[in-house]
């Protein structure tokens, strides 16, 4: 069905493409952003949606510091927090929460948002987080020509990692990413924070699905992210007490 088909059983639900965050107002209807319906049906799959083929590496082996190997018993339990669709006015709040918990994360940013909030993009790097490319303006890449895909990517921030909008991937995109030396990075746990389900639900999506090595999807853009900010703070308090540490992906 959808052109995407991440080589995974369920192609992303392909929510209506839209321009995340852009319109300000923060109340984009439905704002599916990365919501992707459920590209990755399930927070607990434990694998990347795109894993089934030899993708350019959609694995958190991207981890720095040699913590990629999840070992539930020894060593630190590592989570990879990721925030998509920013930077926006919520980015500083997210940065504040991360700093409070001594957490590092990865921000998959849009070129058009960086144009709007260049200082916030700089602040993310300055704080020691990593930045991934989420394209120029959040188009679903598989529906584009090769040259348009390349243009979308080049309009995003410079990075070693690409997270395609909606998690939508096809073979053309894979080969372009390969060619550009970009790792495709999806996620293991979708918090669905963009649906604004309430702080408690976002918090439990993070906490209940935490497992060492997992990549968690959240958003600092695409609409009002107040719930995400509060839920993140609570979840990091709980998970820190359980021995988790939070690292950036090597992007
Ligand atoms: Zn997105």
UniProtKB/TrEMBL annotation:
<dbReference type="GO" id="GO:0046872">
    <property type="term" value="F:metal ion binding"/>
</dbReference>
<protein>
    <submittedName>
        <fullName>Peptidoglycan/xylan/chitin deacetylase (PgdA/CDA1 family)</fullName>
    </submittedName>
</protein>
<keyword id="KW-0378">Hydrolase</keyword>
<dbReference type="GO" id="GO:0016020">
    <property type="term" value="C:membrane"/>
</dbReference>
<dbReference type="InterPro" id="IPR002509">
    <property type="entry name" value="NODB_dom"/>
</dbReference>
<feature type="region of interest" description="Disordered">
    <location>
        <begin position="1"/>
        <end position="80"/>
    </location>
</feature>
<dbReference type="GO" id="GO:0016810">
    <property type="term" value="F:hydrolase activity, acting on carbon-nitrogen (but not peptide) bonds"/>
</dbReference>
<feature type="compositionally biased region" description="Low complexity">
    <location>
        <begin position="29"/>
        <end position="72"/>
    </location>
</feature>
<dbReference type="InterPro" id="IPR011330">
    <property type="entry name" value="Glyco_hydro/deAcase_b/a-brl"/>
</dbReference>
<feature type="compositionally biased region" description="Pro residues">
    <location>
        <begin position="9"/>
        <end position="18"/>
    </location>
</feature>
<keyword id="KW-0479">Metal-binding</keyword>
<feature type="domain" description="NodB homology">
    <location>
        <begin position="77"/>
        <end position="247"/>
    </location>
</feature>
<dbReference type="InterPro" id="IPR050248">
    <property type="entry name" value="Polysacc_deacetylase_ArnD"/>
</dbReference>
<dbReference type="Pfam" id="PF01522">
    <property type="entry name" value="Polysacc_deac_1"/>
</dbReference>
<dbReference type="GO" id="GO:0005975">
    <property type="term" value="P:carbohydrate metabolic process"/>
</dbReference>
């Amino acid at each position: 069905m959808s052109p995407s088909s991440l080589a995974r059983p369920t192609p992303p639900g392909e929510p209506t493409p839209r321009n995340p965050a852009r319109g300000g107002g923060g109340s984009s209807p439905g704002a599916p952003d990365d919501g992707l319906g459920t590209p990755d049906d399930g927070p607990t799959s434990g694998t990347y949606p795109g894993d089934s083929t030899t993708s350019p590496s959609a694995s958190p082996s991207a981890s720095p510091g040699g913590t990629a190997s999840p070992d539930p018993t020894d060593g630190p339990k590592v989570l990879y927090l990721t925030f998509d669709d920013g930077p926006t006015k919520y980015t500083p709040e997210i940065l504040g929460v991360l700093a409070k918990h001594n957490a590092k994360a990865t921000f998959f940013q849009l070129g058009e948002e960086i144009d709007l909030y260049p200082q916030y993009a700089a602040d993310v790097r300055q704080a020691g987080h990593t930045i991934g490319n989420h394209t120029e303006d959040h188009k679903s890449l598989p529906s584009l020509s090769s040259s348009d895909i390349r243009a979308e990517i080049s309009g995003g921030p410079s990075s070693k990692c690409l997270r395609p909008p909606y998690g939508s991937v096809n073979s053309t995109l894979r080969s372009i990413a390969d060619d550009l030396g970009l790792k495709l990075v999806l996620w293991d746990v979708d918090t669905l924070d963009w649906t604004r389900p309430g702080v408690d639900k976002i918090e439990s999506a993070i906490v209940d699905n935490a497992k060492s090595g997992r990549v968690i999807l959240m958003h600092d853009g695409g609409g009002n992210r107040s719930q995400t900010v509060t839920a993140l703070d609570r979840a990091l308090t709980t998970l820190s007490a359980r021995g988790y540490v939070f690292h950036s992906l090597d992007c």
